[in-house]
Design a protein that fits this description.
12 helices, two-stranded parallel sheet, TIM Barrel, 291 residues, single chain, 8-stranded parallel sheet, globular, alpha/beta
Length: 291
């Protein structure tokens, strides 16, 4: 396989009306579970590590692990520095060899978010590598948990969603490659089992107005129907984290219950890996219209 750039795979996904799956890891079995699912379906895949996950896994270690799989299997697997809250942390990820970075400045003022995002884009361009830079515009929360209700401040009403005009101006001013807007999505999963509906028309309008591929964060808990509609409307990448964390925990819990005398980690952790692989496979099939 001739591995293309992440930028090219994103463009190809949009042309086909599908989306690339982005899944976070905090350990080796999570990585292998995600990779196995992608490889079995012959699909490009993005591995994400948030600041907390990078602190646990190691910035350079994550780069080395993904590069090892890419080189060994000649496979399009890419690494993204998910939800990064400062220029210094973005710089650290780029310098370490990440393929993509996200500057999350939604808690800043619009002007501060724009200024720092532009600085991140400039640094990425000067790196000598084709590093994808993503920005966030609009509040969708930050917690990858099961929650009782929609977190305070999360934009779900139409008037508080990312506006087309704001998105267009932001992209033009920063030169960012990808944009993650607030379109009714939220991080985490509601205990009711279904998150708020996505504003599909807003997705379409922002994609056309901003002129760059869009990323849907907070994918866990969104209905299959909304996923399909959002991808057709202009979502090029979908982030899933909470769902695979739950799958991992449930798989590990069952493994510990079924094997009370087992002490070998690789035996105890295998069901957790398999649970992650199963969940990722389900999501990738949906995002890529594979029956």
């Amino acid at each position: 396989m001739n591995i293309k750039s992440l930028r090219e795979y994103i463009a190809e996904a949009e042309e086909k009306g599908v989306a690339i799956g982005h899944f976070n890891i905090a350990n080796l079995e999570g990585l292998h579970g995600i990779f196995n699912a992608a490889k079995n379906l012959d699909l490009p895949i993005i591995i994400g590590t948030s600041e907390g996950e990078r602190d646990f896994v190691g910035v350079h270690e994550a780069v080395a692990l993904v590069k090892a799989l890419r080189d060994q299997y000649n496979y399009p697997i890419f690494l993204n520095a998910d939800h990064t809250y400062s220029f210094e942390k973005v710089k650290e990820a780029i310098d370490a060899g990440y393929d993509a970075v996200i500057f999350d400045g939604v808690k800043l003022s619009y002007e501060e978010n724009l200024e720092t995002t532009k600085k991140c884009v400039e640094y990425a361009r000067a790196s000598g590598r084709d590093v994808i830079v993503e920005a966030e515009l609009g509040n969708i929360g930050q917690s990858s948990k099961i929650v009782d209700e929609i977190p305070e401040g999360v934009a779900t009403d139409d008037e508080f969603l990312t506006s087309v005009e704001e998105a267009k101006k932001f992209v033009e001013a920063t030169g960012v490659d990808l944009l993650a807007p607030a379109v009714g999505n939220m991080h985490g999963i509601l205990k009711s089992g279904r998150n708020p509906e996505i504003n599909i028309q807003r997705v379409k309008d922002i994609r056309e107005g901003a002129g760059v591929p869009l990323v849907l964060h907070g994918g866990s808990g969104i209905s299959d129907e909304d996923f399909i509609k959002a991808i057709k409307a202009g979502i090029g990448i979908v982030h899933i984290n909470t769902e695979i964390r739950i799958a991992y925990k449930d798989g590990l819990k069952q493994s510990l219950q079924d094997n009370p005398d087992e002490v070998a980690p690789y035996r105890l952790l295998k069901p957790a890996l398999q649970a992650v692989e199963k969940k990722v496979t389900e999501r990738l099939k949906l995002f890529n219209d594979i029956k």
